[in-house]
Design goal:
The complex is a heterotrimer of chains A (362), B (299) and C (290). With 362 residues, chain A is mostly helical. In chain A, α1 runs antiparallel to α3, α3 runs antiparallel to α12 and α13 crosses α14. Chain A is globular, with a radius of gyration of 22 Å. In chain B, the strands form 2 sheets. In chain B, strands 6, 7, 8, 9, 10 and 11 form a 6-stranded mixed sheet that branches. In chain B, α4 links the parallel β4 and β5. In chain B, α5 packs antiparallel against α6 and α6 runs parallel beside α14. Chain B folds into 2 domains: 124 residues, Nitrogenase molybdenum iron protein domain (Rossmann fold), CATH 3.40.50.1980; 123 residues, Nitrogenase molybdenum iron protein domain (Rossmann fold, 3-Layer(aba) Sandwich), CATH 3.40.50. Chain B is α/β, with parallel strands linked by helices. Helix content of chain B is 41%, strand content 15%. Chain C has a 6-stranded mixed sheet, sandwiched between helices. Chain C is α/β, with parallel strands linked by helices and 290 residues long. Chain C is globular and about 55 Å long. In chain C, α4 packs across α5. Chain C contains 9 helices and 12 strands. The N and C termini of chain C lie far apart (44 Å). The chains are: A mainly alpha (362), B alpha/beta (299), C alpha/beta (290).
C-alpha cells in the first residue's frame, strides 16, 4: 500500500484530536477541583477563606492554627459531605446518561427513559407511604437506609423488567426497549399516583420534596454508602468505552467486531441502573444532568466514549455542584430544591436540542 | 482538626504551598468571629407558626432571628429571615443565622439536616404537633421552659383555657350542630378537604360545629366532586386568601359539586383568616370565637 | 480452487482444504413461517471472490448473515476454517472475518478516520500503531481525503467506502500460519457510482490475492462475471447453481432465476460473459431502433 504520506497525515490528525481530548480532560479535572473548593468555601455561613484553608489543611495533616469550632463543623459535617455527594451524584447521572445514549444510539436518551427513575420513585414512595404499616418488617430491619436501598432496588428491577420485555429471540430491539420503557414509566407513574392518594398530608410533603431532588440530606453515612454503590459503575463503564463505540455502529456491526453484544448490553444496562438508582436514592430525582452533560461534551470532544465517559463524570460532578451552590445560596437561609435548578437550566437546553434535531431531520 | 495537629510532618511539596498560604493568613485567626460581643442573649430560630406565636405571646420575640414559612403571625414575624418550608430546611442556612436554639415541631426536617444542626453545637428541640388542647398545652409548656419563662407560659395557658372555657359555656347550638366542610384549597377538580386529626376539625368542633368529613379520613385529602354532595354540608369554610383567589363566593360556588350542597344553595360560605384559623396557637380561642360567631352557635 | 488467479505462491504448509474455507452446509432458516433458506450450501475458499446473485428476496442477505454469524440457522451449520462457528468466540471470529453491512445506523459525528479505526477493536485497538493501518485502509478505499470529515456529513457512497476501509482495517494483517481471513460484502456497490463500483470490486480482487476469501452479494450480473472467480445463484432460499461465471451465467439459468431473457456475449477485452437483456416486443428497450 503506497500511502505513507496519508499515514503520516492521518496519524497527525488523530494525534491532534487525541491531544485536544486529553487536554480537555485535564481541563475538566481542574474545573472539578476548583468547583469543589468553591463549594466548600461558599455557603450561607460566611467563613473567611483563611479558615476554610485551615480546615482543609488540617484534613491533609498540616499544622494549622485553631479554627472556630462552628466553622469546622460547618465545613466538615455539612459542606464537605455535600460537596462529595454532589460530585458523586453528578458524575453518576452524567456517565449513566452518556452510556445509555451510546447503548440506544440516541443522543436524546435519558436515564429516566428506561424506567430507572420511575421505578426508584415508586419504590421510595412505597417505603414513605407504607413504611409505617405494610412494610414495617422492611423499614424496621433497614432503618434509615430503607429509602435509599428501596429506591435503588426499584430502579434495578424496573430496568431489568423493561430490558426483559424488549429482548425477544435472543436479541434486543432498541425500539421495543424504548416503548417498553414508556409503558413501565406509565405503570410506575400510576402506582406512584395511587400511593400519593393514600398518603397523609405529612407524607405528601415528604414525597413532593423528595421528588424535586436535593443534596440537603448529605451526611458522611450517605456519602459512604453512595460512594460504594456508585464506584462500581463509575469505574467500570469507562472500561466499556470501546464496546459502546462499537455499539454505535449497530448491534450487528458490533458483533462482527467481536463484541459479545447481548452480554455487554446487559452489563451496561445493569451498571447504568446501579448508577442512576443509587443517585436517585440519595438525592431524589435530579433531571437533565444525564442529558445535558454528554451533549456538551460531544460538541466539544466528539462522540468517542473513551473520552466522553470520564469527561462526563467530571463535568457532571462540576455542573451539579454549581447548581447546588446556586440552590443553597440564592434564597438563603432557605434553599431551593436542586431538581428545580437543573430543570430550569436543562429544560430550555432540551427544547433547543429538539428544535435543532427537527431542523436537521428535514 | 484543632491546633493539636501541629506535630505532624508535612509530606508533599504541596504542603509548602499550603503552609505559606496559612502562614500569611495566620494573624486573622486570633479573632474568632462568633464568640465576641459579651453575654449572648439566646438567638432563636422558630420552625412552626404556632411556636412563633407562642414566642411572641411570651414576650421573647427579641430573641427570634429566623422563622419558617408557616410563621405568618404576628406580621412582624414575616420580616424576619425565612429558613424556608419546615420540612425542607437547610442546615447551613439555619446555621448562618448563628442561633443558639432551634425550636421545631416533630414533623420538621429533613431529619439529617436537624442532626447536622445539632452536630454543629446548636440546641435543637422538637415539640409534638397535635391539634388538640393537650397538644397546645404541652407546646406552650415546652417553649416556655426552653426560653426560661415557665411562669409566663403557665399564665398564657391559663388565659387560653379560661377563654375557651368561657366560650364553651356560651356555645350552644340550636338543634343539631351545623355541618361544616373545610376546604384548604380549591382548584380544578382538586379540592383539598379536612378530615379528622386536623386543626380545622378541632376548631370546628370547639366552635360547636361538626366536620362532615370527620369519619371519612384523617388529615387533608383531595375531595371528589360527588363526595361533597354526600357530606351535605350546611356551611362551607375556606380561608380568605382562597376565597379571594376564586373571586369570592360566586367563584367558589361555580363548582357544580359545591353549589348543589345545602351550603351552596343557601350561599353559606364562611371565610376566615388562614393563619388565625390554622395556626393552633395562643389565638386558638379567638379563632374559635370568630368561627362560632359565623356559624351562629354563639350569641 | 487451486486455479484461482490470486492464489499466493508462498504457502507455508499444505493445509487441509476444509480448514481453508468459510462454509455453509445445508442451511435452513424459517422466520415467522417464511422459509428464508432451504438446504443452501455454499463455501468460499481463501483466495477467491465468490459472487452471490439472485432476485430480490431470494435469501442472499440472509445467507450472508448466517455466514457472518449474525443469524443462527434453524438447520445446518456454518464452519469457519474447519471449526463450527459456535466454537469460535466473537473476538476470534472477528480476527478472521469482517462484514460490510448494507447500512449502518451510525448517527454520531465520529470522523471518518475514527470510524475506520473501529475496525481495529478486535485487535485490542485503536492504539497508536493502528492509525497507520487505518490510514492505509482509507487510502485503499479511496477515502483518505475524508479522514477529518465528520461521518454524519458524508454522502451515502462515501459512508459505504468508509465502512469498506473499516472492514479492511479489521483483517489487515496476515494471521499466524497464514490462516485464511474472509470478507463478506453485502451489496457493496449499491450506493456507488460506476467508477467506484469497479474500484471497489478491483479492491476485492486484490484482497483475494492476499489469501482472503471474499463473498460479495451483487445485483449486477456483469460486475459478477467480470470480478468473481465463482458465482452462486440463489432463488427462493435455494442454491440454483454454483460455478465459474462462464459455466453458470447461461441464458437458461438467468431466465430461471430472474425471469429475464438475455443474450450472453463474450466481453470484448476480458472474454468473460457479458450479459445483455433481450429486446422483446412486449417490453421494448427505450431508444431501440427497432
Amino acid at each position: 500500500m503506497s500511502s505513507a504520506a496519508l499515514g503520516v497525515r492521518g496519524a497527525a490528525a488523530i494525534f491532534r484530536h487525541h491531544s485536544l481530548q486529553r487536554l480537555s480532560l485535564i481541563g475538566l479535572g481542574t474545573l472539578t477541583v476548583c468547583v469543589a473548593l468553591l463549594s466548600i468555601a461558599i455557603g450561607p455561613v460566611t467563613i473567611p477563606v483563611a479558615d476554610v484553608l485551615r480546615v482543609i489543611g488540617g484534613l491533609l495533616g498540616l499544622p494549622v492554627a485553631e479554627v472556630p469550632p462552628q466553622y469546622e463543623a460547618v465545613i466538615l459535617n455539612i459542606r464537605l459531605p455535600r460537596t462529595l455527594l454532589g460530585l458523586l451524584v453528578g458524575a453518576s447521572l452524567a456517565i449513566a446518561g452518556a452510556s445509555l445514549q451510546g447503548l440506544f444510539r440516541n443522543p436524546l436518551a435519558d436515564p429516566g427513559l428506561i424506567g430507572v427513575s420511575a421505578g426508584a420513585a415508586l419504590a421510595a414512595v412505597s417505603v414513605i407511604v407504607l413504611g409505617s404499616s405494610g412494610l414495617t418488617f422492611l423499614t424496621g430491619a433497614l432503618g434509615a437506609f430503607s429509602l435509599p436501598l428501596a429506591a435503588f432496588a426499584g430502579g434495578l428491577v424496573t430496568t431489568m423488567l423493561v430490558y426483559r420485555l424488549a429482548s425477544a429471540d435472543g436479541r434486543t430491539s432498541v425500539t421495543t426497549l424504548l416503548l417498553a420503557g414508556i409503558a413501565i414509566n406509565a405503570l410506575c407513574g400510576a402506582g406512584t399516583g395511587l400511593l400519593t392518594y393514600l398518603a397523609d398530608d405529612q407524607q405528601l410533603r415528604t414525597l413532593t420534596f423528595w421528588s424535586m431532588g436535593s443534596l440537603g440530606g448529605a451526611t458522611w453515612a450517605a456519602v459512604g454508602s453512595t460512594a460504594v454503590l456508585i464506584a462500581i459503575p463509575l469505574l467500570s463503564l469507562p472500561l466499556l468505552a470501546r464496546t459502546l463505540n462499537a455499539l454505535l455502529l449497530g448491534e450487528a456491526e458490533a458483533g462482527h467486531l467481536g463484541i459479545a453484544v447481548q452480554r455487554m448490553q446487559r452489563v451496561i444496562v445493569a451498571l447504568t441502573a446501579l448508577a442512576v438508582g443509587a443517585a436517585v436514592a440519595v438525592s431524589g430525582i435530579i433531571g437533565f444532568v444525564g442529558l445535558v452533560v454528554p451533549h456538551l461534551l460531544r460538541l466539544a470532544l466528539g462522540p468517542d466514549h473513551r473520552f466522553l465517559l470520564p469527561g462526563a463524570a467530571l463535568l457532571g460532578g462540576s455542573l451539579l455542584l454549581l447548581a447546588d451552590l446556586f440552590a443553597r445560596t440564592v434564597v438563603t437561609p432557605a434553599e431551593l430544591p436542586i431538581g428545580i435548578v437543573t430543570a430550569l437550566l436543562g429544560g430550555p437546553f432540551f427544547l433547543a436540542l429538539l428544535m435543532r434535531w427537527r431542523r436537521h431531520a428535514l | 482538626m484543632k491546633g493539636q495537629r501541629t506535630g505532624k510532618p508535612a509530606r508533599h511539596a504541596l504542603a509548602l504551598v499550603w503552609l505559606s498560604v496559612l502562614g500569611l493568613s495566620m494573624p486573622a485567626a486570633s479573632a474568632p468571629a462568633s464568640a465576641d460581643g459579651g453575654a449572648p442573649s439566646a438567638r432563636l430560630v422558630s420552625v412552626d407558626g404556632a411556636i412563633t406565636e407562642i414566642v411572641y405571646a411570651l414576650g421573647a420575640e427579641d430573641r427570634l432571628v429566623g422563622v419558617d414559612t408557616t410563621s405568618k403571625y404576628p406580621p412582624a414575624a414575616e420580616a424576619l429571615a425565612s429558613v424556608g418550608y419546615k420540612r425542607s430546611l437547610s442546615a447551613e442556612g439555619v446555621l448562618s443565622l448563628q442561633p443558639d436554639l432551634v425550636l421545631a415541631t416533630d414533623d420538621a426536617g429533613p431529619p439529617e439536616v436537624l442532626r447536622q444542626i445539632d452536630a454543629a453545637g446548636v440546641q435543637v428541640e422538637q415539640v409534638p404537633d397535635e391539634p388538640t388542647i393537650e397538644g397546645l398545652h404541652s407546646k406552650i409548656d415546652t417553649v416556655a421552659r426552653l426560653l426560661g419563662r415557665a411562669s409566663e407560659g403557665k399564665a398564657l395557658r391559663g388565659r387560653i383555657d379560661a377563654e375557651l372555657d368561657r366560650l364553651s359555656r356560651q356555645i350552644r347550638p340550636a338543634g343539631d350542630p351545623p355541618r361544616v366542610l373545610f376546604l384548604l384549597h380549591t382548584g380544578a377538580g382538586n379540592d383539598l378537604a379536612a378530615g379528622r386529626d386536623s386543626v380545622a376539625d378541632t376548631v370546628i368542633r370547639l366552635a360547636g360545629g361538626e366536620n362532615v368529613l370527620h369519619d371519612a379520613f384523617s388529615g387533608y385529602k383531595p375531595l371528589g366532586p360527588e363526595a361533597a354532595l354526600v357530606g351535605a354540608p350546611q356551611v362551607i369554610l375556606v380561608t380568605k386568601r382562597n376565597l379571594d383567589g376564586l373571586g369570592g363566593i360566586d367563584g367558589l360556588l361555580r363548582h357544580a359539586s359545591l353549589s348543589a350542597t345545602p351550603a351552596g344553595s343557601a350561599r353559606r360560605v364562611v371565610a376566615m383568616d388562614g393563619p388565625l384559623l390554622l395556626a393552633f396557637g395562643p389565638r386558638l380561642a379567638t379563632a374559635v370565637a370568630e368561627l362560632a360567631a359565623h356559624l351562629g352557635t354563639a350569641p | 480452487m487451486s486455479e484461482s488467479p490470486g492464489r499466493p505462491a508462498a504457502r507455508t504448509h499444505p493445509a487441509d482444504d476444509a480448514a481453508r474455507v468459510l462454509a455453509a452446509v445445508d442451511l435452513g432458516l424459517v422466520r415467522r413461517g417464511a422459509r428464508l433458506l432451504h438446504g443452501a450450501s455454499l463455501a468460499v475458499r481463501a483466495g477467491e471472490v465468490l459472487a452471490v446473485l439472485g432476485p430480490n428476496g431470494a435469501g442472499k442477505s440472509t445467507l450472508l448473515k448466517c455466514l457472518g454469524g449474525e443469524l443462527s440457522p434453524s438447520r445446518g451449520s456454518v464452519h469457519l476454517n474447519g471449526q463450527p462457528l459456535n466454537n469460535w468466540s466473537p473476538g476470534e471470529s472477528a480476527l478472521r472475518r469482517a462484514v460490510l453491512p448494507q447500512h449502518s445506523p451510525l448517527s454520531f459525528p465520529f470522523t471518518a478516520l475514527e470510524v475506520t479505526l473501529m475496525g481495529r477493536i478486535p485487535h485490542g485497538g485503536p492504539g497508536p500503531g493502528d492509525v497507520g493501518i487505518a490510514a492505509e485502509a482509507m487510502s485503499a478505499a479511496a477515502v483518505e481525503h475524508l479522514a477529518d470529515r465528520s461521518y454524519t456529513t458524508l454522502s451515502g457512497g462515501e459512508r459505504q467506502r468508509v465502512h469498506l476501509a473499516r472492514v479492511l482495517a479489521q483483517i489487515w494483517e496476515h494471521l499466524p500460519e497464514h490462516e485464511p481471513r474472509y470478507l463478506l460484502l453485502d451489496e457493496p456497490t449499491a450506493s456507488l457510482d460506476p467508477a467506484h463500483q469497479h474500484a471497489t470490486l478491483t479492491l476485492a480482487r486484490q484482497w483475494a490475492r492476499r489469501d482472503v476469501g471474499v463473498v460479495v452479494v451483487l445485483h449486477d450480473l456483469n460486475l459478477a462475471a467480470q470480478y468473481s472467480d465463482r458465482v452462486a445463484v440463489l432463488k427462493a432460499g435455494q442454491i440454483l447453481a454454483t460455478g465459474t461465471p462462464a459455466d453458470v451465467l447461461q441464458p437458461s439459468l438467468i431466465a430461471e432465476a430472474f425471469g429475464l431473457a438475455v443474450h450472453v456475449l463474450a466481453h470484448p477485452d476480458l472474454g468473460c460473459p457479458l450479459i445483455v437483456p433481450r429486446a422483446t416486443p412486449q417490453a421494448p428497450v427505450a431508444g431501440s431502433a427497432r
